[in-house]
Amino acid sequence: MLKPGDSQRVAELMRETAAAxxxxxxxxxxxxxxxxxxxxxxxxxxxxxxxxxxxxxxxKILPGVPVVGEEAVEGDAGLVELIARTGETCWIVDxxxxxxxxxxxxxxxxxxxxxxxxxxxxxxxxxxxxxxRLAIALKGQGTTLDGVPILGKAPDRPPRGLASYRVRKxxxxxLTPRQRQRLGELTTLSCAGREYIEILRGTFDFSLYxxxxxxxxxxxxxxxxxxxxxxxxxxxxxxxxxxxxDAGIIAAPSSDVVAEAKAVLELVELPLLAPKA
Length: 277
What we know:
The chain is of the alpha+beta class. It is 34% helix and 24% strand. It has helices at residues 6-22, 45-61, 70-75, 99-103, 165-174, 177-181, 192-201, 214-226, 255-265; strands at residues 34-38, 41-44, 67-69, 89-97, 110-117, 120-128, 133-138, 143-145, 148-149, 160-163, 185-187, 206-209, 230-232, 249-252. The strands form three sheets. It has a seven-stranded mixed sheet, sandwiched between helices. The protein has a five-stranded mixed sheet with strand order 11-10-12-14-13. Helix 1 packs antiparallel against helix 2. The longest helix is centred in the first third of the chain and has 17 residues, at 6-22.
């Protein structure tokens, strides 16, 4: 599928896209350059330009392989079905992860690219744009951060996690102080790509989210698994990018950390996760 050198070509394309489409617009957007797709969900001219450049470049790396881009899915929701199609190969692209940060001038945003084959993520690339830090994972070949192999382990200190606001709210409301302590500090950076980079660096230890849009989590989940950990749904099933968007994700570069986080989460009733009638 990927030939020798193709992974580096993806990395170079992401850096070229950041330099051409994102960085020149950062803290330089006009009011009309920003709009809301729905309340609280922003898109900018930078998102659109970056996705177009990435799609064009990826088509040259693997001709004929479709691109499922976050912004393209807004116009054609059926595109996301390619991820779940048996035997299909496709790219998943988030051209500007952390758009709300970007639009507000906060330097926490990223580009995320994943390659899916037969419903499984086989390649993942995350570029922390402001800090020019690049993580790469290829299935069966491990994970690197700026070229250095990453091997995860359980922390020798109280854990620090990254979790969505709604999950944190229910955890804080329902758990006793002793139960709550098992999960340690919980926060969010409002940028999944940056969060996965920080987990690989050891700044945080796990990710705990209810909504699992594939462009946010497909690449990062592979990276943590390839670093020696796991990525599972809230019900314990292995994470796959084609799963339900509201089935949750617990991911860490340590299987022990995943098991502990899952055990604590089982004490919390999350009504928002109940199957829809």
